[in-house]
């Protein structure tokens, strides 16, 4: 098979060729000329996988837990694609190498595919590249796709919004639990895993989570998180915030204890989404998020390409000197080059 053409790569990937899969991902990451045609060819073949986000503070045991979850899924005969977002943060330098070690149990299993993606360039770029790689793994036939991201910052929220089920990993003894929990995780968590349950303080963490959950999650937060984007219709079932209460599962990732229970919770949530129409709803939100990301990048690039560098520089200077405010500067720039978008 010819792995240098769109048709050849697409056919090989759909037939389960792992080398083709790796090449397609490289094209996407490097944004080569083949990237877009490949994405267009593969898109109709995706849409079957269940996409799981695993997020939480650095060092809570996410990679170890992903390893344990994957082993349970493999025992059930399901194939698993894993994307680890390497934040290249000072907290977890060398995550790539570390993840390889922690996920070594999975090496050599053709039913598992692991890919690390680095935070390169803009965060929006990473979110988009991640969404693209998820779609490719989906088209390649992986039945469960797990994305590991660190923290719950804005970029992680964007990346996590690609998931149907988001598992937030907490661990005891990471300072002020309640503060950490407050920082936006309630809005994105479908399931809580309290990992390192072999450590002291695990019950305090569980209690803190239960307390937060009992206060409830206003639906508008959920809509803001996933749907900051284009207006999306929300089905009635979804508006009933009590329909799904995030379960709290204690795990010891290093020994695999609790991994089966966590998989069961994920599968329950998957079924819940299917039966309540939530999956369709999330698909629409995901489409809205993606369209917005792509549109934003496209319009920005297009506008910048048509803006004379001197004009941009002059605007930057003027704003820095406080001669004009940034809103007025943008208004003028846009008026100068026009808002027309020329196709290319
Ligand atoms: N005692 C104990 N240690 C654990 C457990 N799970 C993970 N660890 C350890 O915690 C450390 C961090 O684990 P990782 O899986 O790399 O954590 P992570 O959340 O992926 O870390 P980053 O990706 O760097 O944010 C490792 O030394 C693990 O062996 C657990 O359940 N109990
Ligand atoms: Mg990790």
Walk me through what this model shows.
This protein is of the alpha/beta class. It folds into two domains: 1-44, no CATH class; 46-277, P-loop containing nucleotide triphosphate hydrolases (Rossmann fold). 53% of the residues lie in helices and 12% in strands. The chain has helices spanning 6-14, 18-29, 35-42, 62-75, 95-102, 123-139, 154-160, 177-182, 185-188, 202-214, 219-227, 236-239, 259-276, 278-306, 309-320, 326-337, and strands at 50-56, 80-86, 112-118, 144-150, 165-170, 191-194, 248-250. Strands 3-2-4-1-5-6-7 form a seven-stranded parallel β-sheet, with helices on both faces. Helix 2 (18-29) packs antiparallel against helix 6 (123-139). The protein is globular and about 60 Å long. The structure holds guanosine-5'-triphosphate and magnesium ion. Guanosine-5'-triphosphate binds at residues 58-64, 92, 95, 98, 102, 150, 195-196, 198-199, 252-254.
